[in-house]
What does this fold into?
Amino acid sequence: MSLPKGFVSGSVAAGLKSSGALDLTIIQNLGPSNFGTAVYTTNKVLAAPVIWSRQVTKGEAVSAAILNSGGANACTGPQGFADTHKSAELVAKKLNISSGEVVVCSTGLIGEFLPMEKIETGINQINLSESGFEASAKAIMTTDSVPKMASTVSKGATFSGIAKGAGMLAPAMATMLSVVMTDAEVEPTDAQSAFNRAVELTYNRIDSDGCTSTNDTVLFMASGASGVKISGTDLLDVLTEVCGSLSAQLIADAEGSSKTVAIKVVNAASEDDAVNVGRANARNNLLKCAIFGGDPNWGRVLAATGTAKASFDPLNVDVKLNGIQVCKASTPAEDRNLVNFENRLVEIEINLNAGTSSATILTNDLTHDYVHENSAYAT
Amino acid sequence: MSLPKGFVSGSVAAGLKSSGALDLTIIQNLGPSNFGTAVYTTNKVLAAPVIWSRQVTKGEAVSAAILNSGGANACTGPQGFADTHKSAELVAKKLNISSGEVVVCSTGLIGEFLPMEKIETGINQINLSESGFEASAKAIMTTDSVPKMASTVSKGATFSGIAKGAGMLAPAMATMLSVVMTDAEVEPTDAQSAFNRAVELTYNRIDSDGCTSTNDTVLFMASGASGVKISGTDLLDVLTEVCGSLSAQLIADAEGSSKTVAIKVVNAASEDDAVNVGRANARNNLLKCAIFGGDPNWGRVLAATGTAKASFDPLNVDVKLNGIQVCKASTPAEDRNLVNFENRLVEIEINLNAGTSSATILTNDLTHDYVHENSAYAT
It folds into this structure.
């Protein structure tokens, strides 16, 4: 996998991570187009880089992005914003572009200032090249165990993306950073609309632990360097493919997880209802613990479903666990002990018998390792 | 502690629990008054006993309650409702009262039918007496490690209550059953209003794991046998005292918990805002894991607060952790390493600087033991 035409990137171990791993990366769009748009966290408490980058992407012109792990620069006040601004200025100077076209993304511990000397040194050390894709994916990792990358070709144009995020992972957004790049030529209004919908269908349908972060940013940049025009449903499809792959990789690597759980809600009265029921189940700790234990406790599915904002008859819900119809019309059906939990993937199908809409939410189980990882993050 | 005047109760090990412990209890109000009111779960998926009891308490006349552990009788359809009805009939026949004045409560695994032969035998074996209080508290325990009881005297009238519930414990309601009894003389409209508010201030402000059950019932019965009239704020105060004590006991015994966490939200624009912010923190798994690990990661408080439905300036939130002002105006203040986590009680004060309202939500940490207990409940 590699960067689309028109993109270069470079990464460095700037010393933000105590491990000495890569922690700072710059991605540059050399054009000819520099279209950029992004979707941000819905959290009211916004990290400094989100406040900065929202202004940048309003102009739909993004020439570069700088991303760091090892510090979120959130809850850092005016000093934190000044630090973000300075990072953008340093990148702009290095690349001879406007700082108003530099998106900044940070991830890591909240409530600590970034070591700006290390960042400045790191920015100066970075060498950008066409072969920097995998290193950029590695530089944004936090508790991720593997880098997340996806790439596909549509009609001769390449779409490639990276992502990080393994905890505090919930719509909208997840704890995550993601950059999706293409060398296709896109039309701004069409591209923004397609990207928003693709994010809605992918990143906003994974929910690892119900916790929404202060730093989430999903950035889309198009260079137009391939000369291939892509628009409409073609663009939506390819963006959904790339973002869908990255989303699934995030859940597959969710903090401490032992199971990936696909919660498929069918025959809902509306897509919103289906999503709401899926999320209510994805956030139910008791259900997530049961799945960790291989316990076919479908009553917890019904109890979670009953808390969701959705229209359905509570006496007429059907549930399948890994294909076994354990519940029919909200009462016991096939023997729950027939459910096989051997595979990592667990499929829960919830039939609301209330309409024709459906949605699938991806989540993971709640495990001892999740508790362990998250009880010792700052210390 | 004992039953108020006018009440008798009796309990038996009917064999619903495999442990052979007490699992079935009847509480009777001998009067002269038989006022009763209740607050039920907000879950759309309602257990059969909740559907039955809601009809009973509409009449505000409750002469007896039968409560069982060892089976929730939820998601059991028409058969489950028939079983609940039969339990009420058996109690009515035994006590020579109307089945329409018998509240039924069940708790345990969802999606299994109750063994009605054992329940019928149990009902016949029960002997009611004035000294049955503690046994009744024990008979409703599920994963509780200790029975929960509270009793107080106000102006010569006794108020006594029992409760169970250690998981699936969230407003509104918690996974819990509770019966509060008094020998005071109360006026129905006043008593219903005072009880609803007392429940709002106590049971609805504990949130162990964010999971709302199908069976929650908090029943209040008044016999009038003391001849003492209690009303208005006096009644609210004493009900809040008893329900507050029982609520705190539930959190202190929450499944697998090692810490009780009091989330005090102050200077909110409204009481609803304060409650919403408190609950958002109480349901944040990352924060709950951090507290388990003794990690003063206040960034997770800000991140959770930013997801709550509440009006405040995200750049002007203050946080104290066990008295240490770790965050001032949404930025780092005192050294987070000064926070001492030695005691079971952890106090988080969130100052929204947005008004004059406040509320405290009680929760607990998320631990290895929670995961363990809840990954092996049905099996």
User: Anything to note?
Assistant: The CA atoms of residues 55 and 89 of chain A lie 15 Å apart.
